[in-house]
Inverse folding.
């Protein structure tokens, strides 16, 4: 009996992945000199393409045989480009001019620019309840009870970034760590009301990380894939928010994603994502 060919899921993108790509595109092609929008002037027609940095299929441009299908469809391997630049970079005659490192540089630079723009919008002042609503959504249910790291005893960001070899999220962690005071005030208010929502949020984030960590059993594995692990935690938590009974329809995508990142970076600082550096006696 002929065995079935494994199903190709490299183009079956998670909703959370598409959402993050959309938010961090800023509705602009990621090619550095391109000013084309990704959604047409009618506000609904999509004129962009989700492009694989390393090809989805074996005969595609920049194909990497060592990647899994999940890695091929993962956030780290995808970039949003206008239709023209997607065609250009994947043209077999041009591929040598658009290597993986260059496209990853485009992606990182563009997403950094858009994140800085989003940060400058002061979304927490405009939508002060957004962060509370995100907390409520993440903490709407609880998994396994886990031990948690208290912020006061947590290692500083620099040590944790270096210990886990975080590269792409390095600057984001440093910038969003500034919002930890704001988040702590919200957590304090929640605790005064007798709620355990803070614990539920951190439990759910840590349990999400531990589930993902099963694919990266050693510290060396984690260090080689720290940014990808970060991506997966963010996407899985976003799915929890999307499926939570507390809907966030009153806020736009940027505001929800910005608030979510504050909570995620705080969890990283508390050592609920990635590994805790060894304590120096």
């Amino acid at each position: 009996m002929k065995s079935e060919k494994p199903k190709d899921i490299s183009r079956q993108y998670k909703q959370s992945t598409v959402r993050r790509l959309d938010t961090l595109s800023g509705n602009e092609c990621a090619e550095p000199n391109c000013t084309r929008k990704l959604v047409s002037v009618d506000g609904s027609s999509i004129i962009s393409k989700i492009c694989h940095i390393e090809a989805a299929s074996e005969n595609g441009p920049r194909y990497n045989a060592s990647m899994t299908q999940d890695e091929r469809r993962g956030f780290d391997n995808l970039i949003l480009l206008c239709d023209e630049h997607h065609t250009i970079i994947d043209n077999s005659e041009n591929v040598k001019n658009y290597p993986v490192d260059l496209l990853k540089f485009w992606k990182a630079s563009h997403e950094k620019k858009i994140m800085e723009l989003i940060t400058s919008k002061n979304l927490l002042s405009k939508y002060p309840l957004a962060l509370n609503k995100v907390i409520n959504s993440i903490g709407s249910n609880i998994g396994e009870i886990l031990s948690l790291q208290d912020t006061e005893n947590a290692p500083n960001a620099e040590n944790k970034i270096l210990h886990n070899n975080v590269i792409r999220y390095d600057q984001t962690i440093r910038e969003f760590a500034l919002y930890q005071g704001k988040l702590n005030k919200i957590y304090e208010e929640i605790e005064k009301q007798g709620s355990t929502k803070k614990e539920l949020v951190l439990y759910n984030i840590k349990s999400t990380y531990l589930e993902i960590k099963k694919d990266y059993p050693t510290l060396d594995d984690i260090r080689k894939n720290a940014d990808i692990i970060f991506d997966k935690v963010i996407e899985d938590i976003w799915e929890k928010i999307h499926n939570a009974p507390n809907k966030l329809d009153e806020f736009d995508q940027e505001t929800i994603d910005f608030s979510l990142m504050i909570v995620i970076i705080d969890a990283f600082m508390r050592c609920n994502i990635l590994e805790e550096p060894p304590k120096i006696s």
About this structure: The mean pLDDT is 86. The longest strand covers residues 48-52. Residues 15-119 form one domain.
